[in-house]
Write a structure and sequence with these properties.
Blueprint: E1 11-15, E2 21-27, E3 32-36, E4 42-48, E5 50-55, E6 58-63, E7 66-70, E8 76-82, E9 84-85, E10 92-97, E11 100-105, E12 110-116, E13 118-119, E14 126-131, E15 134-139, E16 144-150, E17 152-153, E18 161-165, E19 168-172, E20 178-184, E21 186-187, E22 194-199, E23 202-207, E24 212-218, E25 220-225, E26 228-233, E27 236-241, E28 254-255, E29 262-267, E30 270-275, E31 280-286, E32 288-289, E33 297-301, E34 304-308
Antiparallel strand pairs: 1-2, 2-3, 3-4, 5-6, 6-7, 7-8, 9-10, 10-11, 11-12, 13-14, 14-15, 15-16, 17-18, 18-19, 19-20, 21-22, 22-23, 23-24, 25-26, 26-27, 28-29, 29-30, 30-31, 32-33, 33-34
Length: 316
């Protein structure tokens, strides 16, 4: 676990559990963090060494190497007594004290004892925990559901969790039944029903039954999003679909994620857009381009920035 994660920008929008919106800011003179409202009025003075986003009405803060939580008025509702904290999710947050991790509720009550060497957040009602250099899973009551016997684990995703034992990875279900054998050098969590795997230095994809949908031949891969995955082969990027079919040529220098059915790609220093069949629908003429958001994308042409619609027409 890392210390309270905090963006190093001057202002980050933070939505609290209240009606107002607060912005995290850093005092340039003191390097301390506080919060302002939309009008720039200071609501919580910049006195913290670190601060995180508000989650479920509370924000993690650190002062003098101790961590706790404040509400949107700045009240320290959970005392700054922990060595490390993580954001609230589903009414609980992980905390560390004297080298041990556990979980507290939004009132600061310890609901899972601080007895673990490491923990991850809950996902699908289970959380990975580590003790004596082995990982397992607990439920929301703190009961050990899957014995602490693995060298490494991932969070559950789509009802399966990746586990590592004797240098090989596989997948288990909620009952700790091995669903996909431990035979891979590396795996990712399941997304859109597929997981990437690494074997003999190359990457491919498997489905939730362990069937190979894309052979391990790629140099790099990314997760599936909107039905397609970005892959890299011979230093060039392209895309494959859920069946492993290569829908684009492997010739692009850079690509973005698919958004609203289109993707920005870069070739020979110029950006354009492809559709999901790999066809160029907006010519590659731009110096820069962003993904589409609400029907528009920002592009740069001849040094000028402007927005275009999905036909490539300039927006007024």
């Amino acid at each position: 676990m890392n210390k309270i994660i905090v963006a190093l920008a001057l202002c980050i929008t933070v939505v609290t559990g209240h009606s107002q919106t607060l912005k995290l800011y850093m005092n340039q003179d003191t390097d301390k963090f506080g919060f302002k409202d939309d009008n720039g009025k200071t609501i919580i003075s910049a006195k913290y060494n670190y601060a995180g986003e508000f989650k479920e009405g509370l924000a993690a803060v650190e002062l003098n190497s101790k961590c706790g939580f404040i509400d949107a008025t700045g009240k320290e509702v959970i005392p700054l007594q922990y060595d490390e904290t993580y954001n609230f999710k589903n009414g609980r947050a992980s905390v560390r004290l004297n080298g041990k991790w556990g979980f507290i509720d939004s009132h600061g009550k310890v609901i899972i004892p601080l007895e673990y060497d490491s923990v991850n957040e809950f996902s699908e009602e289970l959380a990975p925990v580590k003790k004596k250099n082995k990982w397992g899973f607990i439920d929301i009551s703190g009961k050990v559901i899957i014995p602490l016997k693995y060298d490494q684990v991932s969070n559950f995703s789509e009802k399966l969790a990746a586990v590592k034992l004797n240098k090989k990875w596989g997948f288990i279900n909620y009952e700790n039944k091995l669903i996909i054998p431990m035979e891979y050098d590396r795996v990712d969590s399941f997304y859109e029903g597929l997981s990437s795997f690494k074997l003999n230095g190359k990457y491919g994809f498997i489905d939730k039954s362990g069937n190979v949908t894309a052979p391990p031949k790629y140099d790099e891969v990314d997760r599936y999003f909107e039905g397609l995955a970005e892959v890299k082969l011979n230093h060039k990027k392209g895309f494959i679909d859920h069946l492993g079919k290569e829908i684009t040529q492997f010739k692009y220098d850079q690509v973005s994620s698919f958004s609203e059915g289109l993707i920005a790609v870069k070739l020979n220093s110029k950006w354009g857009f492809l559709d999901k069949s790999g066809i160029v629908v907006i010519p590659m003429i731009y110096e820069n381009a962003t993904s589409f958001n609400k029907g528009t994308a920002k592009v740069q042409l001849n040094g000028n920035y402007f927005s275009i619609d999905k036909t490539g027409k300039k927006k007024k």
